[in-house]
Amino acid sequence: MKEKINLFKESLRLVWKSAPEWAFVNVVISILRSFLPLALVFLIRILIDDITASVSAGHASFNNILWMVFAVVLVYFLDEASTDFGNFVRQKQSLKLEAYMYKLLHTKSIRLDLINFEHPDYFDCLTRASREAPWRPNSILNNLISMLRGLLSLLLMAGLLVTLHWAIALLLLVINIPGMWLRLHYADILYNFQRQQTPEARKSAYFNWLLTGDRPARELRLFGLGNYFISLFIRSFKKVKEEEINIIRKRTTIELISDVVKAVAFFGILLFIARQTITGKLSLGQMAMFLLAFRQGMIYIKDLFSSLAGLYEDSLFIGDTFEFLNLEEKVTASPPAIIPAALKKGISVQNLSFTYPGNSDPTINKVSFEIKKGEIIALVGPNGAGKSTLVRLLTRLYDPDSGSVKYDGDDIRNMDPEQYRKFFSVIFQDFMLYNLAVGENIRMGNIEEPHSEERIRSAASITGVHELINNLPNGYNTVIGNLFDDSRELSWGEWQKLALSRALYRHSPVLILDEPSSALDAETEYDIFRRFREIVKGRTSILISHRFINVTLADRIIVLDKGELIEAGTHDELMKKRGMYHSMFIKQSSRFGER
Predict the structure, then answer these.
(1) What pLDDT, on the 0 to 100 scale, is given for residue 408?
(2) Domain span at residue 499?
(3) What is the pTM (predicted TM-score) of this model?
């Protein structure tokens, strides 16, 4: 319970911080709405008694009745208007909170360690948080306000019913207790069920993406996979929903029994009030007042218990949001903190090892080497050798299990990762395709710097994509991709030229190119690597490529295999050793290897 109270406090803090003025107005309106129904019931009683008295006396005092009708209508209007305005306030507050919570989620997501994406549990946690975060804190506030309003209104109505008979007020409370217990009981059951079904729900979402997404669309049609994935989606979807419906069916059955009990109680109250009215103990106005009060009391106590049960349910689900927001960021600056600067000497890798979660064999195993400032290093090796993983370790997207990476002699674990990464520019093998303007795509290489058309065009010219961009309908302002209107799709090779331009746009001392020419045409590739030293002039560069003709221009070549450094040296030195590099180079360059 202490933990749930702390979650309530934290949720309310978020609600208040997101929109304090709207939260205040929401509370004020809710308190006002607690008193209006009692006033309405009381005025209806006076109106009916005045009409009855006028009829009994044989003359109608229409003016008095008219004013009372006006008063009833006015209070009714205020009750309805406050309800409508309250709904608007809650919607406005909900919008503010939703935007605020998305900002918290996105900020946390971009700061969390990249290694989290190797854990299925992380995706489960993210899915639950994304599902609950935008609206659950606001639900806590609304349930608290609803509970306060329900409690005030119930006390007022119960006080009125006590004047008729104390047992009626007690009955009003007792017949609603089973409903509250039922809601609490099934809140636990549904929460545990949904938490257990998160992986299956993600599987359903994945199959839905396969059927509707852009990337799978070609293979889906070519290989005729549509009906197969439809069957997988339906099977996964039904597995989740049918079990949930079974739980809701059981709860609904018990709720119906509870509703029968309430109806029987209302029948008894109705008979009692009717008898009291017939015997003259109650006037017609009092009869109407007590019937309305009991009915309203039933509504308010139901709202009260429903809000209480809703708070309990919220306390279960809001924990998923804070579980995500409280995930620990491990890739941080360890003391003593060091502020990185532009590379002066070089980077050294010392006895570096790293194993992905769930794997038993290391992807990088006791690797050591040095890179001098201004040097061009090539990383080569078969698929799965650990080349891309090594890049992630060098850029501190991952931290190693053991060993270290030193930047100008300082361990990079003592540096703030965001500050450290600013000194690296990388084109990844699986680079991003941004459905934005062409110029914006290139500028993404250093979005923090002021916009510079000259630098954007310079980067595009180096990779040979400038002429293509100029021929687009809106030049550098043309939106590319196929997600939005008035856009223009590019070939994969053209996308790669843009990604390379983006990497070159960033004036960083270290440039890492992971398969930068895999989709380039032969002429563009030849032109870029012919001028490679001119392009990377002044930068320390790391080149990963399976095309050995390109890596021969490197100052040194490092050969990896199964996560281990097998050999290192210049092209000529490695050819003389007749080791793995020699074997791979000969196979690729020979006529037999090309066939």
Answers:
(1) 95
(2) 430-507
(3) 0.72
